[in-house]
Design brief:
The complex is a heterodimer.
Chain A: E1 3-6, E2 17-18, E3 20-23, E4 31-34, E5 43-45, E6 52-55, H1 56-62, E7 66-74, E8 79-91, E9 94-104, E10 110-112, H2 114-117, E11 122-125, E12 130-133
Parallel strand pairs in A: 5-10, 6-9
Antiparallel strand pairs in A: 1-12, 2-5, 3-4, 3-8, 7-8, 8-9, 11-12
Chain B: H1 8-20, H2 25-62, E1 67-71, E2 74-79, H3 82-93, E3 99-102, E4 110-113
Antiparallel strand pairs in B: 1-2, 1-3
Classes of the chains: A mainly beta, B alpha+beta.
């Protein structure tokens, strides 16, 4: 089974994107699929991100529990303290019942980082501008 | 719905703020309590984080790569799988905030992103 998601063309060049839903750990997703199709509010893939970032507003909406604190550094050298939350995350037909995500106070985008990407088989079909999630039933958590 | 009694001076202040903000006392009280409980949770996680950092050399020997749960400055659970620890901790402690952190070379999580800013121009 392959789930397909169009690239976000708000970026130039377009950027690989997903559609995700969020929920409390161990529960069905209660929020989503995200994003609303609004410029700058995508769910994008970032192989350069150690972790997954979710806008704090979404995490507050589902009352996600905080489980850790740490520091986040951007490619531009900015460093700031962050809290880490536990959520259930659904990408297409693929569901994770408890994933650690960073609460992002400053951005509207959700960023899927390597803590999630490394659990998936993903094809970036650039010419078709489509992100394809492959053989989801074969991938082990 | 549970009924609680507020101090008269708090009630008066809430009434004034509700009028100013075109809100109501119930919503204001809920929001204030939510904020207060969030701050308490953050303070507790900070305390547990300090404990984790102090225990880090030992944790690195005994639980390398594992997720450990720290509650009241003690390790209360550990597992290579985050979800397994989370489920057990939630079952044991309910909504009480408990630190769950992976034991790596760094005592505190230092994470990085390379996200590009969204395109803001029209050309």
């Amino acid at each position: 089974m392959t789930d397909q998601f169009p690239y976000d063309r708000a970026y130039r060049p377009p950027i690989p994107a997903f559609q995700v839903s969020l929920g409390l750990p161990g529960h069905e997703p209660a929020l989503g699929p995200l994003p609303a199709p609004r410029r700058g509010s995508s769910t994008i893939l970032d192989t350069g991100a150690d972790a997954t970032l979710v806008p704090l507003a979404y995490l507050k909406q589902i009352k996600a529990p905080k489980v850790d604190k740490g520091y986040l550094r951007s490619a531009w050298g900015e460093r700031r303290p962050v809290f880490i939350y536990a959520v259930a995350l659904q990408i297409g037909s693929r569901q994770f019942s408890a994933i650690r995500v960073i609460g992002d106070e400053t951005n509207r985008e959700t960023v899927i980082g390597r803590n999630v990407l490394n659990l998936l088989r993903v094809l970036l079909d650039g010419p078709e501008a489509m992100t394809k999630l492959l053989n989801t039933h074969l991938v082990k958590d | 719905m549970t009924t609680i009694t507020l101090r008269p001076d708090l009630w008066e202040r809430l009434k004034q703020i509700a009028v100013q903000n075109q809100s109501n006392i119930q919503d204001l009280t809920d929001a204030a309590l939510d904020d207060y409980l969030e701050r308490l949770a953050e303070q507790k996680l900070a305390t547990e984080s300090d404990a984790f950092e102090k225990m880090h050399p030992t944790l690195l020997k005994e639980h390398p790569g594992e997720y450990v749960a720290v509650h009241e400055r003690q390790v209360v659970d550990s597992d290579p799988n985050f979800e397994a620890v989370f489920v057990r901790v939630q079952s044991r402690f309910g909504q009480t905030p408990v630190l769950i952190r992976q034991v790596t070379e760094s005592p505190a999580p230092r994470l990085s992103v390379s996200r590009p800013p969204p395109h803001s121009g029209d050309n």
